[in-house]
Amino acid sequence: MPSRFTLSKPAAFNLQASIILFFLASSSAPTPLYAVYQAAWGFSPVTVTIVFGIYAVAVLAALLVVGSLSDYVGRRPVLLGATLLQAVAMALFATAQGVGALLLARVVQGLATGAAAGAVGAGLLDIDRDKGTIANAVAPMLGTATGGMLSAVLAQFLPWPTRLVYVVLAGIFLVQAAGVAMMPESVIRRPGAWSSLRPQLHLPAAVRAPALLAAPALVAAWALIGFYASLGPTVARRLMGSRSLLVGGLLLFVMAGSGALIVMASRARPARAVLLFGTSALIAGVILSLAATAAASPIQFFVGAAVAGGGFGAGFQGALRSVLPLARPHERAGVLSLTYVIAYLSMGVPVVFAGLRVVHGGGLFTAAREYGLAVVALAGAALLGTLSRRPPAVPVAAPARR
User: Fold this and answer.
1) What span, in angstroms and rounded, lies between the C-alpha atoms of 292 and 295?
2) CA angle at 84 for the pair 80 and 85, rounded to the nearest 5°
């Protein structure tokens, strides 16, 4: 019988969902603050994209090395280490005095996030496969929306604009670490932990075809998120003629919040239908945003962000629901980690080239237009691929019972 200090399964599920949410909140927290850092330290848009991109590289490194470790040693030890490391990253952000310290904080943050991604996502599926699949799709978007807006509000209206949000998040991660220590283990330890640390890209045979089908949608969706989270706030402020930090936070909130709403609204729809909607909405949202920059219309730009955010949410959910339910329990963390490898590679690398285009090309709006057209092309390829092939039948997540 579990002791009174052991979390129940529902409590463990909610704890792990909150870990995804606040890990992603911490990743978007610096976005509204880039303008403050630029004003204080005088760096260019290229540096902004490098600071953003190095986080994605660190996530990738952790995913490749420890992404499937929790399948062997258990979910709890991996999550405990990741939450404590994330608290350290927040301390580094709060005390940063220059670009070098900011880069270091992003690297530590990325390593913590990459270590946790496979373990927490698989842990949710261990407890409840249907609800876990939905939580894996919606929690990152809720976190992105929450982190960006929280950071902007605290920086705009309270003292310590570049510190307070990190202090708050560090406290949350320490509380979560205490919760993980009381969480029941959901998998049986098995040999092979050291071998799992060798970087490898492997997909079980049962999930290969659905993963290939979903990959273009993942690339398009996460590449778009990368742009909105790095250079998007600057575009929005230029269109609005405002220097308010709330603009950047609001942009992320609108885009990620829209994605979360679409995930919840479409959770009972077939995965293929969700993928089709997601890629179509991505195309429509980006075209609206591009037209908004040409017409200098901030309202239309935010509308485009909302539509594109819905496309991101649907595309990401459709991809996860096409792949994860087909993996066996001891394969879930590895499969989810590989999914995030594709996602973070797509999010981190293209934005650095976009930053170079801003400085050495035709400027911010030219770079935004070229980036948007590339996303439209990727989403179009994903749409055609989804229409031309039918993935294997996947159990549909039923709405949560009340």
Assistant:
1) 5
2) 115
**What pLDDT, in 10s, does the model give residues 185-205?**
877 777 777 776 776 666 677
Per-state percent for the chain, helix, strand, coil, to nearest 5: 80, 0, 20
Q: How many CB atoms sit inside 10 A of residue 68's CB? A: 29
CA distance 280 to 305: 14
Q: 10 Å Cβ neighbour count for 243?
A: 9
- Residue 281 contacts by C-beta under 8 Å, 6 or more apart in sequence? 262, 307, 308, 310, 311, 314, 315
Domains of the chain: 9-184+205-388 (1.20.1250.20)
Which residue bears the tokens 């030890």? 77
Q: What is the pLDDT of residue 123?
A: 86
Separation in Å, CA 114 to CA 25, 111, 252, 270: 14, 5, 21, 29
Give CA–CA dist 167/399, Å, rounded: 36
Predicted confidence (pLDDT) per residue in 232-290, tens digit: 888 888 898 888 888 888 888 898 889 888 888 887 788 788 888 988 999 999 999 99
Angle, helix 298-323 to helix 232-240, in steps of 10 degrees: 160
Distance CA 154, CA 355 (A): 27
**Cα 126–83–172 angle (5° rounding)?**
105
Instruction: Give 10's Cβ-side CA count (13 Å radius).
Output: 0
Alpha carbon distance 117, 79 (integer Å)? 9
Condensed to tens digits (0 to 9), the pLDDT of residues 53-95 reads 898 889 888 888 887 778 788 888 999 999 999 999 999 999 9
Q: Helix, strand or coil for residue 104? A: helix
- pLDDT value at position 191? 78
